[in-house]
Design goal:
binds manganese (II) ion, 15 strands, binds guanosine-5'-diphosphate, alpha+beta, about 30% helix, globular
Length: about 350
């Protein structure tokens, strides 16, 4: 389960981690703001990169706040429309760092990950330091020293030990699988503040957290990247069919980019979000859609396909095979938009291959 930033910060605060004193604005609810300016207005969506997408705005007056609020509520960020905003006092930033804790499944351990630079452009893979952590005994004294060395702040050993230790506590006690602080900010007065937080909790542990009551998030699709430079994206329903679809693409000597199971609860919004994510792959030349609908409804998928066609300018050719629940309605909707469907997956793959390799 992915938490929204404000939900994560609320948990972190309980563990003594320093977070900005924030307040919440919900869509279509009036709010009385009791805070001085400047403020930062932050969209609450369960994806990163909000800053780049215009979802983080600094405001210096009530008018600017009003304007920013309206603007952010109308934004689409990677397919998500924010329903909640977080208002925080603007920080006086001396430097931004990166710090996270996650479960490293390959090494079967909890891992602390740090980088001397944080913020919006941290995607570059070089320069990360990692520490493998056990459950229970860890030398945070040493980690504090090493973090201070990495960050180039030798005087901050004690503070960084404290941050790392509390982050670890918060991670373990809450059965998290990810807790990422980016940026961890050092303010001009020398304190470390968790300015942004991304947190994922282990759903399998929910039985021992009766207190977990988080905002409902939209239905998510099961999406796995197979190859960032893949040329064929796939959309299917059911894990088995989704895997078979990926295999079928490969058997035609094409490179599949992703595995995608839109799941039984797929609706227009969740499938449209899947299209948005697919469009982030730079080399995508076609999308193969293979739906054998039981609980999934073909008409919902068709509506998402139609919306994707009108909203995404760069959408590559689609090859679509639909069967099952509400197929007739879906076929009618697609026909009205001149979007053809094919009778078999094989026909889709042949057509895809022709598009790619001529
Ligand atoms: P993200 O883009 O979704 O990761 O959102 P962040 O909360 O990390 O915000 C993006 C960037 O906004 C940060 O890296 C900061 O450089 C910048 N920023 C400027 N002032 C502030 C501030 O007072 N608070 C926070 N959280 N970010 C600020
Ligand atoms: Mn961030």
């Amino acid at each position: 389960m992915k938490l929204l930033e404000y939900e994560a910060k609320h948990l972190m605060n309980q563990f003594g981690l320093v977070v900005p004193a924030g307040s919440i604005i919900r869509h279509n609810e009036s709010a009385t703001i009791q805070a001085g300016f400047s403020l930062v207005v932050k969209s609450q969506v369960p994806v990163g990169g909000r800053g780049k997408a215009g979802g983080v705005i600094v405001v210096d007056s009530i008018d600017e706040l009003q304007e920013a609020t309206e603007k952010i509520f109308s934004l689409q960020i990677k397919g998500y429309t924010p329903r909640t905003l977080l208002l925080e006092p603007r920080l006086s930033i001396a430097h931004e760092y990166y710090l996270s804790i996650l479960i490293n499944r390959e090494a079967s351990c909890i891992q602390l990950v740090a980088h001397a630079e944080g913020g919006v452009e941290i995607e570059s893979q070089a320069g990360f330091s990692t520490w493998d952590l056990g459950v229970g005994e860890n030398d945070f004294e040493l980690i504090g020293q090493q973090l201070a060395k990495l960050y180039g702040t030798p005087g901050d050993t004690a503070q960084l030990k404290d941050v790392a230790e509390k982050l670890y506590e918060c991670f373990v006690v809450n059965d998290a699988t990810l807790l990422e602080i980016n940026p961890l900010v050092k303010t001009t007065d020398g304190t470390y503040i968790c300015a942004d937080a991304k947190m994922e909790l282990d759903d399998a542990a929910s039985f021992r957290h009766k207190d977990w009551g988080f905002e409902d998030k939209p239905a998510e699709v099961n999406f796995v990247t197979l190859d960032d430079r893949g040329e064929v994206a796939t959309i299917a329903n059911g894990a088995g069919l989704a895997m078979a679809t990926v295999d079928a693409v490969a058997s035609y000597d094409m490179v599949p980019a992703n595995f995608l199971d839109v799941g039984g609860g797929a609706n227009k919004e969740s499938v449209l979000r899947a299209f948005t994510r697919i469009m982030e792959y730079p080399d995508i030349k076609t999308i193969v859609i293979n739906i054998f609908a039981g609980i999934t409804r073909c008409d919902e998928v068709a509506r998402a396909i139609i919306a994707a066609r009108s909203e995404i300018d760069t959408l590559p050719p689609l090859f679509i095979r639909l069967a099952g629940t509400n197929f007739e309605e879906a076929a009618k909707l697609l026909e009205q938009e001149d979007i053809p469907t094919l009778a078999t997956l094989d026909a889709c793959l042949k057509a895809a291959k022709e598009t790619i390799h001529g």
